[in-house]
Description:
The protein is an alpha/beta fold. Helix content is 27%, strand content 23%.
Amino acid sequence: MQGPRINHRIRVPKVRVVAADGSMLGELDTHEALRMAREANLDLVEVNPKAFPPVCKIMDFGKFKYEEKKRTNEAKKRQAVVELKEIKLRPKTDIHDLEVKIAHARRFLEEGNKVKITCRFRGREITHPEAAEKQLHAVVDRTRDLAIVELSPRMEGRNMTLVMAPLVKGMQQRARPRPAGGPSGPSGPSGPVTGHGGPGGHGGPGAPAGTAGHGGSAGPRPAPAPNDAR
Length: 230
């Protein structure tokens, strides 16, 4: 692809000039615009040749090309390449083979690819399209968590096909297994423990002396006062 015309390749007599800082300088003779670009050690670049007169900008053309290439490369990196994978079935595909086909479809969808399911008829099988529909719906049901049906089942000659597209969450948010075991809450020392198993029932070892628990023996009674009647 041919790039923009710059400097002396611009052959028109007048141009509309944009300064390096983005300000408009208006219509100028081309030789005057070239002089201004040279004095600033920059280039005069034609940015809109279809305008009348053409629009030119004073800029560093080498830096402009470098940044343009960098933007293009970044856009390519962000662009997702989606392939169309095909899985072939028969109306009489047995359960084991169907499970294998479904596993392949799930793997393709997890990788971000579309999947085309093709069920091919042979001989008089085409008189029973409901058998093919049953196979296709079985695949759809087993991949519902990863895909949506982009093209519903339809006949293409002696084939019945459908196309599934991956869900975004199916590609990016895989289910992560939870760690097995482990405490259900924070643990650590929490001071004296007063449990049921101590000699004083609920009082336990950490309870004050003389405190009776539920069902445990009471602590020593206090001595009688000196003025108690005997």
